Fold this protein.
Amino acid sequence: PIAFKSTVKPRTQYYFGQMSVICPNCTAMHWLAERSTIHPSTLVNPQFSTCCNRGDVLIPPMRALPPLLQALFYDRTSLAIHFRTHIRKYNSALAFVSLKYQADQRTQGGLQCFQVHGALYHMTGPLHHAMNMRPQFAQLFLYDP
């Protein structure tokens, strides 16, 4: 063929309407199509198991933000605007995950680039390491001997 022709079928787009149905237990927003099919759930009284498992999981309300974060999120200062503009970069830099991968051994010598063969994993762990274990992942960032 003259050019590459993909054999992958285009994805079908679905539209579920607005996410406007509120879970009666935890007030999470859902689409009506997400309602539980196992538990008694109707169009009039929808029940959801993907957020709080129909009220089985209770998440305490969030505490108020510390004053500095409150200012960064809501003030109109140049510093606060800069923070909100670049918040995704800050989040990525401070995500506290480590990568684990199986290196692609097919490329040896020459120009090297980061290549992954197989799956890419984001490893996280507890904030404190177990006794007699070396710190790893987020523990390295919060290490205090």
